[in-house]
Amino acid sequence: MRFVPAGRRCVFTGPNGSGKTNLLEAVSLLVPGRGLRGARFAELARLGEDASGAWAVAARFAGAQDSFEIGTGTAEGAPERRVFQLDGAAPRAQAEIAQRLAAVWLTPQMDRLFTDPAAARRKFLDRLVVALEPSHAREVAAYEAAAAQRNRLLAENPDPVWLAGLEDSCARHAVAATASRLALINQLNAVLGTGIADPFPRVALALDCPIATRLRNAPALSVEEALRQAYAASRPRDAQMRGSVIGLQHSDLVLQDAASARPASLSSTGQQKAMLIGVILGHAALIRSARGTPPLLLLDEPLVHLDAARRDALFAALEGLGLTAWLTGTDPEPFASLGAACYALRQGRIETL
Length: 353
What we know:
Elements: E1 9-13, H1 20-28, E2 56-62, E3 67-75, E4 78-86, H2 94-100, E5 103-106, H3 118-132, H4 136-154, H5 160-193, E6 203-208, H6 210-215, H7 220-233, H8 235-241, E7 252-257, H9 269-291, E8 296-299, H10 308-320, E9 324-329, E10 341-346, E11 349-352
Parallel strand pairs: 1-9, 1-10, 5-8, 8-9
Antiparallel strand pairs: 2-3, 3-4, 6-7, 10-11
């Protein structure tokens, strides 16, 4: 499929199952990560007798200063891996892709963000961080690898030196990742406090995390040393539990209405959706300010749970912030006031309305 959008804001409509989310997912895969569904790469290929078992997506982007091309798809012989190309050549690291393009998305599954387990909110927060600081993904991945290896070793008769090395790695990467999370939260709170996402609720974010508490009161090197000592002291308990009582996994993103201090988890479904949109818009504005160019905004069924006033407010914000946005919905009528290019998805084809 080849598609050339007719404007910065595009609306894709069609019945459930017509492929709207698949289209947004394809675009979300142009940045590092697992895309807006978080699916395994091996599950992305088209099914059927004539299917190749591989997948690929590529796009050309034109900015105020330059233009560039990004392509990604299945690695040959390794369906669970993917490769990137930047302007026709393999980048040295995926961070090069993230530095050229940022994408932010909102999906119906994220409506459960405030009632899901803390792991979902950590994942959401880390995506926000990576959009501004691509190296954060490496810190989180390095921590998770070291923590998993430490857990396996504790079940055996580990070499104390090897175990201490893994605990040092856990401590360093946990502190670096937590510092990045805190920095993003502070920046986002400052932006949201200016009313950039008004009239959506002004949201206050916080990180409920023992490591973050330490970092607020001590230098990073001191926190790293304290974590190393805590890891060493907790070895017997961690071996028994087959998991660590310390680390990035023991943290949660907390959101509340800045005016009323009402937690998002206790708000109505409509209010939760409005708070989430406010965060997404504030984050997009933050990226635009930091990079000079706005991110690509992918909004899957964004009008669900929004009344007419907030729907119009969303459209005004997209226009006012100068955001490039792709939106989906079952019918085109609710998007009429957006002034976007409208398309319908029918039997795997994109048709102009």
